[in-house]
Amino acid sequence: MTFRCVHFDDLTKAELYDLIALRLEVFCVEQDCPYQDLDYKDQKAYHVLGEINGEILAYTRLVPKGVSYEMYPSIGRVITSMKVRRDGYGKALMEESIRLCQQYFGESPIKISAQTYLKRFYKGLGFEQVGEGYLEDNIPHIPMLYRW
């Protein structure tokens, strides 16, 4: 898998269509969670595309400070397609996303809204829980922070 990072303004129509299709496939269909995916943060974000043979199979969205969280940049919409899940690409995707956050936003802590069942995964990447759990779109989540 190769990773590319593209600001919203530089995404092609085909890339935008493919990444939205992947987000809907995982978050709405697979997780059976109808929610408003398009939240007007995409236009301010960098988009990390994980591709194999030109197909987007992994994805994150890097959001600058002041958009999702006042004091922190964030990584969100973390996805690996079912086609490649459990092949280690999720970890590689997050490591690349953390590196790119540092490149674009400096060494500011990174905040995420993690699905609770993935706490151990994110903890293994250096994130720590920083608050109580909550429901987001009826799915249990926890706030987590990555500090350099």
Task: Provide a descriptive summary of the structure in words.
The protein is an alpha+beta fold and 148 residues long. The chain has helices spanning 13-30, 89-105, 119-124, and strands at 2-7, 46-52, 55-63, 74-80, 110-115, 127-129, 134-136, 139-146. A four-stranded antiparallel sheet has the order 1-2-3-4. Strands 5, 6, 7 and 8 form a four-stranded antiparallel sheet that branches. The longest helix has 18 residues, at 13-30.
The global form is globular
CATH names the topology as Aminopeptidase
Q: Into which percentage range does the β-strand content fall? A: 25-35%
Query: What does the largest sheet look like?
Result: 4 strands, antiparallel
CATH superfamily: Gcn5-related N-acetyltransferase (GNAT)
Number of strands: 8
What fraction, in percent, of the residue positions are helical?
Answer: 25-40%
Structural class, from helix and strand content? Answer: alpha+beta
- How confident is the prediction overall: mean pLDDT? 97
**What count of domains describes the coordinates?**
1
Measured between the Cα atoms of the first and last residue, the distance is 26 Å
Radius of gyration: 14 Å
- Unreliably modeled segments: none
CATH-derived architecture: 3-Layer(aba) Sandwich
Secondary-structure element string: EHEEEHEHEEE
The strand order across the widest sheet is 1-2-3-4
How many helical stretches?
Answer: 3
Summarize the structure.
The chain is an alpha+beta fold and 148 residues long.
